[in-house]
Amino acid sequence: MELLTNRAKQVDRRPMDFWERLYLISIFKGMWITLKHFFKKKATINYPEKQRPFSSVFRGLHVLNRDEEGRENCTACGLCALACPAEAITMEAAERLPNEEHLYREEKYAAKYEINMLRCIFCGFCEEACPKDAVYLSQTVTPASYKRENFIYSKEDLLIPHPKKSN
Ligand code: SF4
Ligand code: SF4
């Protein structure tokens, strides 16, 4: 039969000699390989105590932006949800009331805004699609959790701190 690659190895079927039957040489060879790895630089790190530096273009957890007055930028236009290839974003729009000008920048706002981080592939399309500078991907890694519901980030989880109330 013609071989597809040159990686095939012939199996050695000759009977084992005395030293091979003792297995000592094979055991020492195996232990030597293990011992060599003790002194090699580790390929792994003690995550999460230690973290590798990220690229400057790393895209992590989203944030929802406010303007300098602390008003929410998002107008619930839905463009980010439309651009999202993973269908990770859902929202509900609401109309701003006359006494809510200090809360929302535009006449419409997101009463509910959710991102499912289990669906998100951190492509950044939502950030690019947003015409209001409202959604950004930060350099924060989404924290791990044992519960699926902890990966649904609500508007309150995503909004940056109010610039006038954070201090
Ligand atoms: S980063 Fe990509 S996948 Fe994640 S919510 Fe934004 S558009 Fe969707
Ligand atoms: S985050 Fe931007 S694109 Fe998404 S609904 Fe709000 S304003 Fe529209």
TrEMBL record:
InterPro entries recorded: 4Fe4S_Fe-S-bd (IPR017896), 4Fe4S_Fe_S_CS (IPR017900), NADH_quinone_OxRdtase_chainI (IPR010226)
Cofactor(s) listed in the protein's UniProt record: [4Fe-4S] cluster
EC numbers on record: 7.1.1.-
GO BP terms, alphabetized: aerobic respiration
Binding locations of [4Fe-4S] cluster 1: C74, C77, C80, C130
Cofactor note: Binds 2 [4Fe-4S] clusters per subunit.
UniProt: [4Fe-4S] cluster 2 binding residues: C84, C120, C123, C126
Keyword terms of this UniProt record: 4Fe-4S, Cell membrane, Iron, Iron-sulfur, Membrane, Metal-binding, NAD, Quinone, Repeat, Translocase, Ubiquinone
Domain 4Fe-4S ferredoxin-type residue range list: 62-94, 111-140
Catalytic activity: a quinone + NADH + 5 H(+)(in) = a quinol + NAD(+) + 4 H(+)(out)
Compartments in which it is found: Cell membrane
Pfam families attached to this UniProt entry: Fer4_7
Molecular function in Gene Ontology: 4 iron, 4 sulfur cluster binding; iron ion binding; NADH dehydrogenase (quinone) (non-electrogenic) activity; quinone binding
One GO cellular component, as annotated: plasma membrane
UniProt entry tagged with the keyword Lipid metabolism: no
Topology in membrane: Peripheral membrane protein
Record's subunit section: NDH-1 is composed of 14 different subunits. Subunits NuoA, H, J, K, L, M, N constitute the membrane sector of the complex.
Family affiliation: Belongs to the complex I 23 kDa subunit family.
Role played: NDH-1 shuttles electrons from NADH, via FMN and iron-sulfur (Fe-S) centers, to quinones in the respiratory chain. The immediate electron acceptor for the enzyme in this species is believed to be ubiquinone. Couples the redox reaction to proton translocation (for every two electrons transferred, four hydrogen ions are translocated across the cytoplasmic membrane), and thus conserves the redox energy in a proton gradient.
PANTHER family per record: NADH DEHYDROGENASE [UBIQUINONE] IRON-SULFUR PROTEIN 8, MITOCHONDRIAL, NADH DEHYDROGENASE UBIQUINONE IRON-SULFUR PROTEIN 8, MITOCHONDRIAL
Name this protein carries in UniProt: NADH-quinone oxidoreductase subunit I
Annotated source species: Moheibacter sediminis
